Amino acid sequence: MSANPSVTGRRARRHIYRLAVAVAALALTAAACTSSDDADGPAAETAGAADAGTSDTAAETTETTTVDTSDDDEETAAPVDTEPIRVGSLLDETGPLNIYGTPMADATRLAIAAINAEGGVLGRQLELVALDSKSDQAEYIAGADQLVAEDLAVVHAGITSASREAIRPIFDEAELLYFYNVLYEGGVCDRNTFVTGVVPTQQMQVLIPWAIENLGPRLYVLAADYNYGQISADWVQEYAAAHGGEVVGEDFFPLDVAEFGTTVSEVQDASPDAVVSLLVGGAHMSFYSQYAAAGVNADIPIVSTTFGLGSEQVALDAASAEGIIVAYPYFEELDTAANAEFVAAWHSEFGSDYPYITDLAAYVWEGWHLWADAVNAAGTLDRDAVIAQLESGVSFDGPKGTVTLDGGSHHLIQPVSLARANTSNGFDVFETFENIPPTFEQDVCDLIASPDTNEQFTP
Fold first, then answer.
1. I need a surface site. Which of 1, 83, 265, 438 has the fewest CB within 10 A?
2. Per residue in 86-109, pLDDT tens?
């Protein structure tokens, strides 16, 4: 399976980051980046504040401040820890899933630069240890083991649900705080894990009723053949039945499938009112062009929970993308002052020709800021204290509006907008729903009352 070359080419990583980024009207300090190749594992990158210094291992030093008293006696103050706080990232920066990983990795670096510019965390700069999982499950496991061996305060990692479930137990066992910043099928209940991505009870409760009301009740589901696609397809069934619809067909596809001719014919034979796409990755992108080439999209429109996450609307021709309906918390086109500042900062750092700032980038931005704010409020890096602060109902005002962490479920209360793909490689947002709670997660998961719960609930 190979990445789409048009997306990959346009998203080539900028390895030298400029010295200033304008974020929320504050000039960002430089993030000094170094990279090293590890012959035994994933490629690693460390980045931190230029004045703090970086290295492959954290220096174990403290600075002692001496002050003069009025009696001219020297008094030694308590040691002041000025060493960088080391934090980790594990994402698919190369390989077929880099259509998702590239903007997430860029958002990670931009968020850390912004946090450092605002004084860092506990008065210390953040130093990033970034590993590339290369769209390979084995690399995810090796990378998680490598991050556990580092002296890190937190890890933000994983894209597919399969990768999350491979690495989550590793971070749990090591008691290394973990953020998963991706939309997913929902239901994870784990005291050590915090999720910023949208879940079906937020995304599908908006999208599926809209499809039934505006397109018709008969739905055909096309999904990736792993836990995200399988469980999400169950959620489509739930919401269709609750709103007077029905699923008239389902097909599941491994991530390396790129030929959909037979599927297109089966959809035509079933004659649904709409196709619900839960497809994932670079290979699955070819479905949309094959569907349009057969002329089916003119009669049977597509709604999707994943289209656009990999900037498919940029890579595909307008005829293949136009009119597809999606539901996400964030779109680059959102008309708010906070989003205007975020987009300006992004383009200042990564160039005005950046293909599209995806919904995934916003989750990552929020995840890093929620963690940083919680640590500063707790006054310590102690994991239990930080978890308690996160569970207290912290909020963050970001580019899509205010998001609030639901303490019991460790998921976000957030807005969700409906949008239609246009002919300009973007989306036209036409309706926004504010403050949607993760209702399923709230119903099944209360980590404040039952902190030892560790499982994924399904509908």
1. 265
2. 999 999 999 999 999 999 999 999
